[in-house]
Amino acid sequence: MGAQWRAGLWAPSAGSVAVAIGSERSIPLLRGDNGFWEACFPAEEGEDYSFIVDGIRYPDPASRLQVSDVHGPSRLVSGADFEWSHSWRGRSFNEYVLYELHIGTFTSSGTFRAAAEKMEEFAKLGFTAIEIMPISQFPGSRGWGYDGVLPFAPHPAYGSPNDLRQLVNTAQSHGLCVILDLVMNHFGPDGAYLHTIAPEFFNPDRHTPWGAAIDFSQNAVRQFWIDCALMWLNEYRLDGLRLDAVHQIQGEGAPEFMMELGQAVRKLDLGRPLHLIVEDERNEPTLRESGLYAASWNDDFHHAVHTSLTGESQDYYVSFANEPIADLVRALERGHIEEGQPRIGLDTPRGSDCAHLPVTSFINSIQTHDQVGNRAQGERLLTLADEKAVKTAYALLLTAPYTPMIFMGEERGAVSPFQFFADYDGDLAEAVRQGRAEEFAGIAALGESVPDPIDPATFRHSRLDWSPSPAANDWLRLTHQVLAFRQAAIFPLTATSRQHSAAHVVGEKALTAHWQFEAGELIIDLNFGEIGRHALRARTPDFALFDLKRDPYALAVWSKLT
C-alpha cells in the first residue's frame, strides 16, 4: 500500500474537498476548524495527485514537484533519497561575499547541474556565497522567476529537486553558502489557483505592482509562507533566504508575519547559522534591529555609484543625481543615503536613521538583476561607463566593510546584456509585450525598439558569456586579488562591532573614508572622476588599484588589526 501521507488544504469557502491519487482513487478530506480540510492515505512515492475542490481538479498549492506544468497534477515526493556527501557548518554573515545568479542564463544549458560545475571556480576566486534568483515554478520554460505560482516546487526546466540538492551540496563542499531568493508578496498571473481554491488568501482592497495583494491578517496565510520558508531551509540545506520586496508585504498582520517568520527560522537547529536577507525600499531599521534579519539590499549605494559614473538622472535616479559624490560619502559613512531627510527630486522623504546598524547589515552592489535587467536593453555598467571607472567602483564595493554582492558576470567583466524575458501565450503574452513597450515609451519614440520579452532570442541573448579572453582574465585576476585582501584584512574587522565611521570629500570627485572597529581600522582613499587632495599616509597601501596621484579613477586601502 506504500507510505502514509497526510493531505491538508485551506479552503474556507469550499463545499467539498478530496485528494485524487492517479486516475482511480479519490479520498475525501474532512473539514476541520478554521477552514482546513485534512485526510491521511497510503500511496507510493512518485504517484500523481490533485486536489478536487467542489468538483474541479487543481494542483497542490504547496506542491513539491509537478508532473509537468503548473496547471497539471502534482507528484508525491519526500526528498528522503538524497544523501549529502559531507557535513556543513555554514559561515558567519560577516564573511559573506555574495554572487547573484539566474540559473537559466548562468550557463549555456541553464540547469542546476551545470551551475554546480562552476562552484569550485567561484570558491577559488574568493566568493563565499551564492544568491540564486527565484526558482519556484512558474508558467513556461523561461523567466526571471518573480512570477512563480508554486512556491514550494523547483522549476523543472532547471532540473529535479535532487539536482538542486546536488548544486547546494557541491557549493557547500567548496565552502560556498547558498541563499535562495523567495517571493512572498504576490503570485504570478498564470496558474495561481489559490485565487479560486481560497479567495480568502488575498486582500481585495489592495494590489501590489505585480498583482493581487496577499492577506497576511489570516493565520493560515502566514503559516503557509512560514512552512514554505522552513521547507526550503530544511529539505534543501540552504543557508538562508532573500525575501523579495518585503515593502509590499503590507496591511493587517504583515508586521506580525515578518516577526513570526524570523522567529520560526531562529528556532531551527540545523547545525549551521541561518541568515534572512530582505529587499526593502523603505530604508527602515526595524527588521534588522529585531536581530532576526541579517541584512537588507542597499540600492542607495548602487544609485550613488551609477549616477556618478553615467550621469543618468531619470526615474529613481532623480534624487541621487544632484550630488552623487556627497551621496557616496554618506553611503560609506552611514550605510543608507536616504534616511528621512528632504532631498532634491524626492517628493516624500524616505527612510529612518540606520547608521547604528552593523556594517554587515547593508548589502551593497553596483549591478543587480534589477538594475541591469530593468533597463530597456539590459545593458551592463561596462557598456555605459569607462572601464577604469567601473573597475574602481568594483574594487570599492569589495573593499568597503559593507556586505558586497555582485551580479553574475561582473567578476569577468561581462558585457553581455541581461534582459527581461518571459514565456507566456496568447493574450497574456501580448499584454506583457505591450506593458514592456509602454514602460519605455520614451525610448521607442526615439526609434529604439525594446526587446520582445516573449521572443526566445531575448532569453538567449541574456546568457552569460563564458568565452575566455585577455579582458576576462584581467577582471578575474582583479577579483581574486581583491577578495584575497578582503578575506585577510576585512573579515577580521567586520567580525567585531563598528565603533566609529567617517567620510568626507577631498575634492569635487574624490573622497576618503575611515572605519574603526573593535579589532582595528580600515581607511579608503578614492578618486572617482578627478585626482583628490588626499592626506599623506605613513605607509604604502595594503591594496591599491591605479594611482591616486596620477589617475582620476583610483583607490587605495589601508587596514590595521589591533
Per DSSP, what share of the residues sits in E-state strands of 2 or more residues? 15-25%
Shape: globular
- Roughly how many Å is the radius of gyration? 24 Å
Q: Please describe the biggest sheet, giving its number of strands, its sense, and whether it closes into a barrel.
A: 8 strands, parallel, barrel
Distance between the termini: 66 Å
Average pLDDT confidence is 96
**How many DSSP E strands?**
25
Strand order of the largest sheet: 9-10-13-16-17-18-19-20
- Roughly how much helix do the residues carry, as a percent range? 25-40%
Structural class label: alpha/beta
Can you count the helices?
A: 16
Low-confidence blocks of residues:
none
Write the layout of secondary structure elements.
Blueprint: E1 3-10, E2 17-21, E3 25-28, E4 30-31, E5 36-43, E6 48-53, E7 56-58, E8 74-75, E9 98-101, H1 103-106, H2 112-116, H3 119-125, E10 129-132, E11 136-137, E12 150-154, H4 161-173, E13 177-182, H5 194-197, E14 202-208, E15 211-214, H6 219-235, E16 240-243, H7 254-267, E17 275-278, H8 286-289, E18 295-297, H9 299-310, H10 324-334, E19 362-364, H11 369-373, H12 387-399, E20 403-407, H13 426-439, H14 441-445, H15 456-461, H16 470-494, E21 498-505, E22 510-517, E23 520-528, E24 543-545, E25 553-561
Helix pairs in contact: 6-7, 9-10, 12-16
Domain Glycosyl hydrolase family 13 catalytic: 100-436
Catalytic activity: hydrolysis of (1->4)-alpha-D-glucosidic linkage in 4-alpha-D-[(1->4)-alpha-D-glucanosyl]n trehalose to yield trehalose and (1->4)-alpha-D-glucan
Organism: Devosia salina
